[in-house]
Design brief:
This protein has 315 residues and is an alpha/beta fold. The chain contains 10 helices and 12 strands. The strands form 3 sheets. An 8-stranded mixed β-sheet has the order 3-2-1-4-7-6-10-5, with helices on both faces. InterPro entries: Glyco_trans_2-like, Nucleotide-diphossugar_trans.
Length: 315
């Protein structure tokens, strides 16, 4: 083993989990970026959700043959995205863990800067960077900030951190780096302690915030590959105005949205029940969550949210 390899091995191990399904070209692009991280002591865990396209396995085998840090498993049949996310976490061994979408890209310094921040700030449970959105042709959309509520760290309590997540949490918070013990306790994935009924990200974030604080740095480090319609909806969620797809007054849309918001609230309440806080604090958080989901449901139905200013990216 060379001196540089010994030095890398002495650094904390970072596990990067990639749940994937039937997107070989995008998976290869993602693996290319991840295996070239400046931080070398990583393990890459891929869980293929029973993809019918054989090229997915070919891409996985290609990277496993040239990089011993790459590991994989294949589901015997299609499982829910939630179960596939859990699968890569269960296979991980690192002190730190992060999920990576199979169609996204992270900057080459992403892992290194996250680890550096953890080592200098033991109060942190989660670190990430702002995200920018782009189309499949690599045309970047205009930037907007999602994480400005998570810029500062301090001596927040679990109750205060949970309140911030309920009010300001957003989907891309999932795609950052966690201390693994914020996600797994007593060898059990914290997510599995709730009976999730929705695809909402808040229950995971709430359970993780018991371990420490969340930090979103101003620099763009994550690049999300999405259709224009998804980008426009994300902009609306964060900056307000008229919804790009208009109001949802049709009975089918109305009831589908009502069901999602109700199930999301049930999942959040279940996660709140597991937090190590007082009964009064749990009740306060549930009321806050009910207010957020009710308000968001109303905005979705009428197709309008109060406008908020955009924040320029930080270089």
């Amino acid at each position: 083993m060379s001196a540089s390899e010994k030095s890398d091995a002495n650094q904390p191990l970072v596990s990067i989990g990639i749940p994937t399904y039937n997107r070989p070209e995008l998976l290869e692009r993602t693996l290319s970026r991840i295996t070239r991280q400046t931080y070398k002591n990583i393990e890459v865990i891929i869980s293929d959700n029973a993809s019918p396209d054989p090229r997915v396995q070919e891409v996985i085998d290609k990277y496993k043959s040239v990089d011993k840090r790459v590991k994989s498993k294949r589901q015997s049949s299609i499982v829910t995205p939630y179960r596939n996310f859990i699968a890569v976490l269960q296979e991980s061994c690192g002190e730190y863990f992060m999920w990576a979408a199979d169609d996204d890209a992270i900057e080459g310094w992403f892992v290194q800067r996250c680890v550096d921040k953890f080592l200098s700030h033991p109060e942190l449970a989660f670190v990430t960077f702002e995200a920018n959105y782009f189309e499949q042709n690599f045309l970047s959309f205009d930037f907007f900030s999602e994480g400005s509520a998570f810029r500062e760290t301090g001596s927040q309590t679990i109750y205060e951190r949970a309140g911030t997540i309920i009010r300001y949490g957003f989907g891309n918070l999932v795609y950052g780096m966690y201390r693994r013990d914020a996600l797994v306790r007593d060898r059990q994935v914290m997510w599995e302690r709730t009976r999730l009924s929705s695809a909402n990200e808040l229950p995971l974030l709430l359970l993780a915030c018991q371990r420490g604080e969340f930090l979103v740095m101003e620099t763009v480090g994550l690049h999300k590959s999405v259709p224009r319609s998804v980008y426009e909806y994300a902009v609306w969620e964060n900056t307000g105005g008229w919804a790009p797809d208009g109001p949802r007054l049709h009975p089918k849309s109305f009831f589908a949205s009502a069901k999602y918001h109700l199930l999301s609230y049930v999942d959040v309440s279940s996660a709140v029940n597991l937090l190590e806080i007082t009964a009064a604090e749990k009740l306060a958080l549930k009321l806050r969550a009910a207010a957020r989901f009710a308000s968001h449901f109303a905005c979705v139905i009428i197709g309008y949210k109060p406008r908020l200013p955009r924040t320029p990216p930080h270089d």
